[in-house]
Design brief:
Blueprint (H helix, E strand, L loop, with lengths): L2 E10 L5 E9 L4 E5 L28 H15 L7 H12 L9 H19 L3 H5 L4 E2 L1 E8 L12 E5 L6 H22 L2 E4 L5 E3 L4 H14 L9 E5 L6 E2 L4 E4 L4 E3 L1 H14 L2 E5 L7 H11 L4 E4 L7 H10 L4 E4 L1 H4 L2 H13 L3 E5 L9 H8 L4 E6 L3 H17 L4 E2 L4
Parallel strand pairs: 4-18, 5-17, 9-13, 13-14, 14-15, 15-16, 16-17
Antiparallel strand pairs: 1-2, 2-3, 5-6, 6-9, 7-8, 10-11, 11-12
Helix pairs in contact: 1-2, 1-3, 2-3, 5-6, 7-8, 12-13
The structure holds 2-phosphoglyceric acid and magnesium ion.
């Protein structure tokens, strides 16, 4: 089935910022859309989203140049292509852009089109998106934020994400049930403290804490209040987002909340101590994306005990993932479509991760849309894990709920594993 036309326009993400949506129309009139998310704690090696940068218009965040690129450059290349040949279309978008970081056309322009093609292909085939993308049947284990900090909560805490992994769940539904119980128990605790300012960008509580360790203690109390045993049914996962804490010039990591600085060794020791003291089963971006020695140190201390995820470190980029594998820096890769910019490259990154015996964790961005593409991607590829922020705000719940729908559609073929 051939592509008849391509359109793009500005919509708004979950932070109320402009983003781009593309729509592919096929010769038979069927359509598919692609909606692009946006990060706040972005890695320096990510593909570049194109924003207009005019301070007087949408605070510089409008995406009209990216939209013009879709209309004036991409449409001519995509028109007439077979919508089922995602790889050929993605390759031609990469070639048309011609830069390693997609900065010419904009990764947001390219991804909008790539996602729209994938959605239109599923419509053309008459199958659900996950089935169109792959053969997978594994429902993802959720990683769900309870407390939000860092760049997503005006640095209320230095650690960006305190997340829950329902290690005791036997089904996807049960993992959401455990999360529901703990999320609301944490909310009750926040009300009792009287120091909560609402929820952070990804829906986790945005509290006032004096230290980062106080969050761990509150988290454990929330798990117990919900009737579970920390480390049994409900375990902890952290995204340190350490690149945001790191000063390249001095080589120091800095905690704003506690006004403390650490060299790389001391920072790795502190994180190792936290992971030994608390039931942490997964640790993301513990060190900055350029601090390879720090990564090696933390990998030798914790790599055999817990999941060590590279996010800003790898930016869903196959070359960087390979380099990390050769140097033994981590054992899992965060997968974000807009870090690399096409569906095909994202799926390549997942496959490479799996072939090495590492875990891919499909992830949303802090600025999201109502689209649930990543839920389908996680199941289609048997990725095994999904990280979407918290258990509130509809741009987050859309993803968790979509997995419930996929589960119904898979029926008895659906699989689930609580081990990360
Ligand atoms: C991350 C993501 C999502 P952002 O660091 O993993 O939590 O944040 O989209 O801001 O990069
Ligand atoms: Mg991260």
């Amino acid at each position: 089935m051939k592509i008849r036309s391509l359109d793009a326009y500005q919509i708004y993400d979950s932070r109320g910022n402009p983003t781009i949506e593309a729509e592919v129309t096929l010769e038979n009139g069927m359509t598919g859309r692609g909606l692009v998310p946006s990060g706040a704690s972005t890695g320096q090696f990510e593909a570049k989203e194109l924003r207009d940068g005019e301070a007087s218009r949408f605070r510089g965040k409008s995406v009209f140049r990216a939209i013009a690129n879709v209309h004036q450059k991409i449409a001519a290349v995509v028109r007439g292509c077979d919508v089922l040949d995602q790889r050929a279309i993605d390759d031609s978008l990469i070639a048309l852009d011609g830069t390693p970081d997609k900065s010419h056309l904009g990764a947001n322009a390219i991804l909008a089109v790539s996602l729209a093609v994938a959605n239109a292909a599923a419509v053309a085939k008459g199958v659900p998106l996950f089935q169109s993308l792959g053969e997978g049947t594994l429902l993802p284990l959720p990683e769900i934020q309870i407390f939000g900090g860092g760049a997503h909560a005006n640095w209320r805490t230095d650690v960006q994400d305190f997340l829950l992994i329902a290690t005791g769940a036997k089904t996807y539904e049960e993992s959401l049930r455990i999360t529901f119980d703990v999320y609301h128990a944490a909310g009750d605790l926040m009300k009792e403290r009287g120091t909560c300012y609402g929820v952070a960008d990804e829906g986790g509580y945005w509290p006032e804490f004096r230290t980062n360790e106080e969050v761990f203690e509150t988290f454990l109390r929330a798990i117990e209040r919900a009737g579970y045993t920390p480390g049994v049914e409900a375990s902890l996962s952290l995204d340190i987002a350490a690149s945001d804490l790191f000063d390249e010039a001095s080589g120091l990591y800095h905690f704003r909340l506690e006004d403390r600085s650490f060299d790389s060794d001391a920072f790795a020791e502190l994180l190792t101590h936290w992971c030994e003291k608390y039931p942490v089963v997964s640790l993301e971006d513990p060190m900055a994306d350029t601090d390879f020695d720090g990564w090696k140190k933390i990998h030798s201390a914790l790599g055999s005990k817990l999941q060590l995820i590279g996010d800003d470190l790898f930016t869903t980029n196959i070359a960087r993932i390979r380099q990390g594998m050769e140097s033994g820096l981590a054992n899992a890769v965060l997968i974000k479509l807009n870090q690399i910019g096409t569906v095909s490259e994202t799926m390549d990154a997942i496959r490479l991760t799996q072939e090495a015996g590492w875990n891919p964790v499909v992830s949303a961005r802090s600025g999201e849309t109502e689209d649930a593409f990543i839920s389908h991607l996680a199941v289609a590829t048997d990725a095994g894990q999904l990280k979407v922020g918290s258990f509130s705000r509809s741009e987050r719940m859309a993803k968790w709920n979509e997995v419930l729908r996929i589960s119904r559609s898979l029926g008895a073929r659906a699989r689930f594993s609580p081990i990360c």
